Amino acid sequence: MLATILKSVVRQIRRHPLYVGLNVFGLALGIGVFLTLALLVRYEYGFNAGLPDGDRLARVDAHWTLPGVAPGEYASSSFHALPFMLQDFPEIEAAVRLRGTGLRVVRDGAFVALDSYQTDPSFFRVFGLKLLHGVADRALAQPDGLVLSDRAAIRLFGTTDVMGRVVPLNRGGVTVNHVVTGVLASRTTPDFLSGVELLAPIPSSELGFSCFVSWGSDCGSVYLKLRRPGDIAALNARMRDFVIRHAAGADNDANAIGQHPEKVFGLSLMPLREARFRDFHVLYADDGVDRAVIDGIGLMGVLALALACANAVNLATARAGLRAREVAIRKTLGAARRVLFVQFMGEAMLLAACAGVLGLVLCEMLVPALASLTGEALAVRYGLVGGLLPLIVIVCGFASGVYPAMVLSGYRPAAVLAATRMPSGGRGAARLRDGLVAGQFGIAVTIVICMLVINHQTAFMRSADPGYTRAGLLIGSAMPGGDLAAQRRLLDALRTVPGVAAASFGELAPSPDNKTRSTYRYDGPAGPVRVHLLQDTVSTRYFDVYRPRLLAGRWFDAARGQDDLPLPAEQASHTVSAILNRVAVSRFGFASPDAAIGKGLDTDGLHARIIGVIDDVRFESPRQAIYPEIMFFDTLAKRPLMEPIPAVRFEGVVPSEMARRLNRAWVGVLPDAAGEFSAVDVKMAAYYTGDERRGRIFTLGAAAALLIACLGLYGLAAFAAARRMHEVGIRKTLGATGRQVVVLLLADFLRPVALACVLACPVAWMLMRRWLAGFDERIALTPAHFLIAVAGAFAIAILTVLGQTFHLARAEPARALRAE
Amino acid sequence: MLIDLSHIQRLYRSDEVETTALLDIELGIESGEFVAIMGPSGCGKSTLLNILGTIDRPTGGSYQFGGQELTALGEAALAAFRRENLGYVFQSFNLIDELTIEENIELALIYRRMPRAERRERVAHAMDHVGIAHRARHYPSQLSGGQQQRAAIARAIVGAPRLILADEPTGNLDTENGAQVMDILQRLNDEGATIVMVTHSPSHADLAKRRVDMLDGQIVISVRNAI
Ligand SMILES: Nc1ncnc2c1ncn2[C@@H]1O[C@H](COP(=O)(O)OP(=O)(O)OP(=O)(O)O)[C@@H](O)[C@H]1O
Ligand SMILES: [Mg+2]
């Protein structure tokens, strides 16, 4: 049997190389794309799953319900809560604080920025990460200890054998020598700690920071290892009581939340196994991914495979027609239906197996491309592939073989031999073929529309008006501490750098690290309105640097003494000038920006008067809603700013050269603190890259889907060209012109494509409306997206069948009638 | 003179061999004639008919139809010519499998600008004429050979063409069906249609008004039948 099948396949390859080639190549493409995307989806679903005892690990999340802003879950929570948890919850086996820091390694007088964290010695007990060198229990026990990842060790020293080496660490302008006490082993499975390059103990000097002592402040995350997996849910159920018990504090405790803390504040445990997708809706969580998008990518893989299968079915039924006469003659000579069925099935399986091998090769080629496209550490994992591939081959082989095998083995020889020409498998088969083409193009057009919308949105995010002028703007790193003299000197130095048009300080900047927020009260005609406001203090010339849009009132004026923020001690007796953003104005309920001017706002020991309103300024992710904001003014005459961020508007110099000059000026003033100037786009890049990468995956998927669909259409057109030659001859004899024949054939070929577009548009519309809803700043879904995709699909479809159509329409009738 | 062929020549050139299907054909046919073409297999009968039907082009000579030189016309003009003047009955029926009998017949009118109602009426009339009205909604594969041939004739006459070309219209039929087809053709001829028919049957050829014998791509004899 096998020999018969092989012989038959070889003969078919020789007789119909086009059909067989299209069949195998299309299937291989589908299999390759499917395997590649399956690996990507598995990567996302397996995130954090490689951590030992991952089902017992959880992060403590904070929930804030603050006046005037939507309630939110935050991936960071106060370290102050941890001792109470350890005391109340015996289910906690181990706990660790983890705090991202701006630690820099000093190498040969320059700074090397590493992805660095401060943490507790219990880090290894909680996460169970393996050390290449060093002892887990002691690695972070000594205050000057330091753990490097193997890659960081190689980057710094060229080797992983670095135990005991001295590493000078700079933080906030102060350099302290640390000794390497451990080197992390690299892991193959992805988790949220994959990017960690440096771990250092939390210095005792920082334990007085507010996030260590106050309930309302946070600067990092707390991770717990529970004794049993079920403990996560059990503790979650008890968190409300826990907050009520501990967070209220005594009456005058400024570090507590106050009466009824549960009304504004909550705590919950986020299981790390689930964090990858749930973090998409958690604020301050970096690794969150939209599960719908990942599922969409997975679906795209499945659809690519389905498309390819549909192709195989199509081409196989088409080819079956070509073999009808052979089958009929075999049957007349006595072949049993079962034998024929087995033979055709075997052929389909054999071709599917060839496609599977080719698909694997394709996957091997695609995965590295996808890895560099997504920035994720993707690799071909043969555990997964080895399990999937045989299954795919069997499914595809069966799917593409069963219908033709049934049709072919079921042909009644008399009918076939009596027919004037090769049968097409009847009307049923023709409808099946059209339906499959419609399905293929429907899927392809849907993916193309999604791809267009996603890429449009990502491009829009980068180019959308952020409320200030991005071009010609460079942002520095935060200047450590609150040294007034140093701040004045740095600003003066920056202002004298050639090319600088204006320089200023703000406590906030694009992609801010530190944010101060508090609740302000407006005593309006309808009673007090409270809004939780993000607070920024800016220095002179800030307006010239960022160029925000003033909607009402005026900007701060250094010449007016009352605009300048007074010293904290004098604040109670002053009215402070403040500027609000547009969102804040509407949250307080003012009818218009103008209506807000002159109104008073109050917060703890501070009375402010609104002097101006600016349009919303976007410093953070376009997915996030703009936070209501209040701005104060500090001329640096009496009081310093807290960790101010310098910003510079420049002219006539290329940005890279400007940044170099500014960095040099910084070192001249503050040799111990690294300052790095970069463009807004660079600062904000992290907000866009995820969506851009996924946009690229969709582009890839759309191309693959279109290619597969076109392969199918091409095969069908070629088949129809052979089959309809005769019909065209008859039509021409009856007086049809070449043009009429072209129109007829094109209409026939394109009918399923048109149907596909009709089906695809509403589906894509629904999908994309949901996706876009995840963005605060988003494009409108216009008919243009759909029209472009539909026009593109038609153009490609026409190009695909045009050659065959013309070939057919040009045929001389006499010859066409003879061709059989 | 309706048809005037002079020095018609048809060569088939493939890579190595050159076949002469028609060699210097001289033939005139008056309007209202019924011509039977006879000759051994491969002598060029179908080729001649194809050239008369303008679905094949001669490699030399001139073909005038109603005084108009057809060899000079382009593709579109020839299509229009066929549409307006010709009915064609093939040896192997050449019905389209995917269309019903009715639709197959209508095909001959579809390329003319004609209102749908008139088309329907003419189709019905043509089907009555050949006696297959009861098979209108069947597909060709559901019909016997004789019925298919009659459907093909209905298609050829539905447009009321001036010239009907029939290539062995009785070749695949039994005596009875053959006689029926000949009957239809004679009736059409009586109604004024000019008919050129290829046949291998001397008795059927005798029913025509004129008989043309061919051999090796040439006309050897042309005789008028006594009526
Ligand atoms: N496309 C072609 N290429 C080469 N030779 C051809 C072609 N078509 C016809 N011929 C040759 O031209 C000659 C005449 O063919 P034609 O079909 O006209 O014969 P016929 O008289 O109709 O025969 P029959 O009675 O068998 O139908 C034959 O020798 C045939 O082989
Ligand atoms: Mg012939």
Structural class of chain A: alpha+beta
Q: Which compounds are bound in this model?
A: adenosine-5'-triphosphate, magnesium ion
Largest interface: A-B, 28 and 30 residues
Quaternary organization: heterodimer
User: Any idea of the CATH class of the domain at 3-94 and 161-224 in chain B?
Assistant: Alpha Beta
Q: Which residues of chain B sit in consecutive blocks of at least 5 with pLDDT less than 50?
A: none
Rg over CA atoms of chain B:
17 Å
Rounded to the nearest angstrom, the radius of gyration of chain A is 34 Å
Strand content of chain B: 25-35%
> What is the helical fraction of chain A, as a range of percent?
40-55%
Number of strands of chain A: 24
Tell me about this structure.
The complex is a heterodimer of chains A (820) and B (227). Chain A has four domains: 184 residues, no CATH class; 228 residues, no CATH class; 158 residues, no CATH class; 200 residues, no CATH class. The two termini of chain A are 31 Å apart. Chain A is elongated. Chain A contains 23 helices and 24 strands. In chain A, the strands form three sheets. In chain A, strands 1, 2, 3, 4, 5, 6, 7, 8, 9, 10, 11, 12 and 13 form a 13-stranded mixed β-sheet that branches. In chain A, strands 16, 17, 18, 19, 20, 21 and 22 form a seven-stranded mixed β-sheet that branches. A four-stranded antiparallel β-sheet of chain A has the order 15-23-14-24. Chain A is of the alpha+beta class and 820 residues long. Chain B is α/β, with parallel strands linked by helices and 227 residues long. Chain B has a domain of 156 residues: Rossmann fold (3-Layer(aba) Sandwich). In chain B, helix 3 crosses helix 4 and helix 3 runs parallel beside helix 5. Chain B starts with a strand and ends with a strand. The chains are: A alpha+beta (820), B alpha/beta (227). The structure holds adenosine-5'-triphosphate and magnesium ion.
